[in-house]
């Protein structure tokens, strides 16, 4: 399928039904602002799930330059990740721009303008033991500001024990030290420059934990500072994340390679500049 055909077909699907009138956006926004994470049942239609599946199949058949395996070689399964493929996979671009996701993200963030930051594919094959440890997303990125929203959408049924788990309210801060998932190295911020992550699992009763079983079409939408984790899985778990940012987000070049990386961007966007760049297209504006 060509890029133009994929985008045109998806616009036809989107035009057949209103994008967001089936959601209680006010209630979702209130929960998002209070807790930092919400579940949106049926965010994507069956046609949109099928579109995502085609995109993921193309991505797995031809990984991009930022692809990586995030599980140990001894793991009986495999945890595969890839980033920033929307410009070459038309199904990702169609979902990022023309699904209800950007409009819902704008409502949750309270933003007037929504930009797409990047896509992130996460595939845990059957029998993957590797958990995704507790972490915040934003410290790995190249941005500063408060208006952020990630969409995590599974393409397979996900039981609660294999789904994302969140610490409610943790998006209110502070920033915590990002570390590599396998070796727990502080490869980003220098040691001591950010607070260390508390041991959530040692005393879960001290926190309000959010967790949902999900079906294809459902999604969790969460702030990029919300602490989250997930376990291993006994069956295949494909998930596509779409990352959105709002009005107050600015470029924050780092002295290290961010995850995902944007090589050469610091030469085009100075620190503190809005993300006014073709890499971060405007995908929704408030009317």
Task: List the keywords.
287 residues; alpha+beta; four-stranded antiparallel β-sheet; Jelly Rolls; 5 helices; globular
Describe this structure in words.
This protein has 287 residues and is α+β, with helices and mostly antiparallel strands. The chain has one domain (3-261, 268-285): q2cbj1_9rhob like domain (Jelly Rolls, Sandwich). Helices cover 20% and strands 22% of the residues. It has five helices and 14 strands. The chain has helices at 3-15, 25-35, 46-61, 90-98, 101-109, and strands spanning 37-40, 68-69, 79-83, 113-124, 132-135, 143-144, 148-154, 165-167, 209-211, 219-222, 228-230, 237-245, 250-251, 282-285. The strands form three sheets. Strands 1, 2, 3, 4, 7, 10, 12 and 14 form an eight-stranded antiparallel β-sheet that branches. The protein has a four-stranded antiparallel β-sheet with strand order 5-11-8-9, with no helix packed on it. Strands 6-13 form a two-stranded antiparallel sheet. Helix 1 runs parallel beside helix 4 and helix 2 crosses helix 5.
